[in-house]
UniProtKB/TrEMBL annotation:
Pfam families per UniProt: ThiF
Protein name per UniProt: THIF-type NAD/FAD binding fold domain-containing protein
Pathway(s) this gene product operates in, as recorded in its UniProt entry: Protein modification; protein neddylation
Domain THIF-type NAD/FAD binding fold: 23-550
InterPro entries per the UniProt record, alphabetical: APP-BP1, ThiF/MoeB/HesA, ThiF_NAD_FAD-bd, Ubiquitin-activating_enz
């Protein structure tokens, strides 16, 4: 959908099309299960300015089940320049009503309603209101309201996403008790081939092939899986049953593979050499999966989620039928091979994966019955998906906003606020003005916290400064009833007030001695609390992506989920001021993840 798409258009014929046709492209990405979850979602949007409207636009086009827009303000002349979902005829009208009507035109399958009330008032007067939704998207809220809403949604077990654009910067923050990730889709992950621990059927299949065959066609079309299994067996016989472990042994193993080649054009043996690292991988499950199955939530009861029931079944499988391994995924990568041999090998893997699935299915049903739930309440498709991704499952848990604000990770903040090497990076990219944004503390204490090693770390220094100031402007607004720079003719005084507020905040965070200079503070005052459409569209796009991910309940939200997930995560997306042109290309897609 184009950024400049106008909602005031005649409804397309496709709006009444069948869902499979209407949502064809996104179904290819997250499948029918993901789309069904999205269509069952009930989303509440707080504040429908450009950030909120752009976020909800993407969700409406994606086919979310229902939306409720909450905003007590009226459409003003200024809104016409930064919100596509209002027009001249709506000036003076309810903003919630106007935006809701325009959004409804984009997708008539989405149920839409509006409430003319200020979100801050609703948070204070009717906290139970939010319990009816599956997810709340809160935009442009200040710190005090964020803390209150976060506490309300946690108690009601409602997912919450904060989004805010402020001048040329902004953030997206996810806050949920727990987010289970089944389809984590890591960028790099070893194929589940079990080369160093083949099950009986795979081992028997490999034994039927002779690597010393005189037939050159057969020799050059034997899959590398078979080659590695047989060479590994030969190695183990000569090394007391052990596989290569040291660097020297791994080099010798590769030399052994090379010695089996009878022609220089045997791609299958070249593939075997390149893939030999898969044979050297440790057996069993990873530490992250061990941590999950040892979690107290794996001791399930009638209130446990489907995810933890599946984890409980996985724990039993690993301890029994799996022999220390998770269920087999059942797929093999492309490789040089004859078609017949490749298909036969593929069937071996698929048969093993199906057998593991059947065992897991029975264990899931047994556990469900034991805790008093319907044994068929978890579908076969869900169990099969879990088995396929069992080695990659993740669990995300987030701190309360209040905990984040009251108990920050002081070492991390100090690290990025006091690092002198950051200045060298600024100079290296030809932008010395950025060097003065932070005043590093002197002394050995700052040096002991570590150094900026690359450009990304330096960008984190910049972004942390904006994070501090985004909190500082909220304190400023609470004290002076306006954001810095919002009132004309008082810029010098506003800058002085914001600087004092920022220093006080840094002290409260335990970062005494760290200060932000006039350059960065001037930038925040220059913004004047403005909500710019280009930035709002970018922030709204990120926010809507995260809504879709957490609504699906089986995909990674924010790349931080690929790390150890038992700690707090703050996902912040920053855009740097336009006058810092040399830094902007680096920062546009820059993410910070704190744990």
């Amino acid at each position: 959908q184009s950024l400049f798409y106008s909602p005031r258009i005649k409804k397309a014929k496709s709006s009444m099309a069948e869902p499979k046709t209407k949502y064809d492209r996104q179904l290819r990405i997250w499948g029918e299960q993901g789309q069904t979850a999205l269509e069952k979602s009930s989303i509440c949007l707080l504040n429908c300015g450009p950030t909120g409207s752009e976020t909800l636009k993407n969700l409406v086009l994606g086919g979310v089940g229902s939306i409720t827009v909450v905003d007590g303000s009226k459409v003003e002349i200024g809104d016409l320049g930064n919100n596509y979902f209002v027009d001249e005829s709506s000036v003076g009208e309810s903003k919630a009503k106007t935006v809701c009507a325009f959004l409804q035109e984009l997708n008539d399958a989405v149920k839409a309603k509006f409430i003319e009330e200020y979100p801050e008032a609703l948070i204070d007067s009717n906290p139970s209101f939010f319990s009816q939704f599956t997810l709340v998207v809160a935009t442009q809220l200040v710190e005090d309201s964020m803390v209150k809403l976060d506490r309300i949604c946690r108690e009601a077990n409602v997912m919450l996403i904060f989004a805010r654009s402020y001048g040329l910067t902004g953030f997206v923050r996810i806050s949920v008790k727990e987010h289970a990730v089944i389809e984590s889709k890591p960028d790099h992950f070893l194929d589940d081939l079990r080369l160093n621990d083949p099950w009986p059927e795979l081992k028997s299949f490999a034994e039927t092939y002779d690597l010393d065959t005189p037939d050159p066609v057969v020799h050059k079309h034997t899959p590398y899986v078979i080659i590695l299994i047989k060479i590994a067996e030969e190695w183990a016989k000569n090394h007391n049953g052990n596989l290569p472990s040291t660097r020297q042994e791994k080099r010798e193993f590769k030399d052994l593979l090379k010695s089996k080649m009878i022609a220089s054009d045997e791609d299958n043996y070249k593939e075997a050499i390149e893939a030999s690292f898969k044979l050297f991988a440790p057996r069993g499950i990873s530490p992250s999966i061990q941590q999950i199955i040892n979690d107290s939530c794996a001791e399930v009861n009638s209130n446990s989620t489907d995810f933890w029931v599946l984890v409980a079944a996985l724990k039993e499988f690993i301890a029994n039928e799996g022999g220390g391994e998770a269920p087999l995924e059942g797929s093999i990568p492309d490789m040089t091979s004859s078609t017949e041999l490749y298909v036969n090998l593929q069937k071996i893997y698929q048969a093993k994966a199906e057998a593991d699935f059947l065992v897991m299915e029975q264990r899931v049903k047994k556990i469900l019955k034991k805790i008093g739930r319907d044994p068929d309440s978890i579908s076969k498709a869900t169990i099969k998906s879990f088995c396929k991704n069992a080695r990659k499952v993740k669990i995300c848990r987030y701190r309360l906003i209040e905990d984040e604000y009251n108990s920050p990770v002081q070492l991390e903040l100090q690290k990025y606020l006091t690092d002198e090497d950051y200045r060298n990076f600024c100079l290296s990219i030809g932008n010395p003005s950025l060097c003065s944004m932070f005043k590093p503390s002197s002394g050995a204490g700052a040096a002991s916290l570590g150094r900026v090693r690359d450009g990304q770390s330096a960008l984190m220094c910049i972004a942390v400064g904006f994070y501090i100031l985004l909190r500082a402007v909220d304190r400023f607004a609470a004290n002076y009833n306006s954001f810095p720079g919002q009132l004309e003719g008082e810029m010098d005084e506003e800058i002085s007030r914001l600087k004092t507020t920022a220093v006080t905040l840094l002290g409260d965070l335990g970062c005494n001695g760290s200060t932000l200079t006039e350059d960065l503070i001037n930038e925040m005052c220059r913004y004047g609390g403005a909500e710019l459409l280009a930035v709002a569209s970018f922030i709204g796009g990120i926010a809507s992506q995260e809504v879709i991910k957490v609504s699906r309940e089986n995909s990674s939200s924010c790349k931080a989920c690929l790390d150890n997930i038992y700690k707090c995560n703050i996902e912040v997306i920053f855009l740097i001021a336009a006058n810092h042109k040399t830094i902007c290309p680096y920062v546009w897609d820059f993410h910070i993840q704190w744990h």
